Amino acid sequence: MTSNPHAVQSAEVTVQAGKVALEGTLSVPDHAQGIVVFAHGSGSSRFSSRNRYVARVLNEGGLATLLFDLLTAQEHEIDVITRELRFAIELLSERMIATLDWLAGEAAVAGLSVGLFGASTGAAAALFAAAARPGRVAAVVSRGGRPDLAMPALPRVRAPTLLIVGSLDLAVIEMNRAAQNAIEAPCRMAIVEGATHLFEEPGTLEQVAVLARDWFLEQLSAPAQ
Description:
By secondary structure, the protein is α/β, with parallel strands linked by helices. Helix content is 35%, strand content 24%.
């Protein structure tokens, strides 16, 4: 058994995003090469097993991660019943932008280049935030995302963007193709063979994690501006 060369320090944090306080987990490996902020998808939270798995792979690769809830506990309870807040893209985007501003004041990661990892509707929030903070966001990855929900902001995205979609998620492939055409920054689409929307098939989520890790390591290697 080989030991992980990147010892990781994790702490529960409270993200002050405007007027609301959002709970999160900040994990910082030794000699971190960048930090990736996760925007979870429809009806999910920072406890999403898929995002936690991807975050662990990023940590092992030497990248810090911030997993946090885009909704407060009370809002999440409402959304479980109404399913309306998960599609409140403007609200989610505002909180992503506020989280980026909060992160700039965190001493442990303040000097690191920032990447955004968005799943499902969280990808739209991540892209809106990238467009709003072009000097702060150095890379974006979307997993089974809905970047089409951020269409008005896509021409203003300056961060290199990777769109990961399952080959069996046909409707979302078309949405991502439309978004790719609208993004003027370097943008690549990676299609994971045999995967559906949630990448539940054996080995598919592992491919997502490796694709994301390699993209972020390449794009976040330059110091933050």
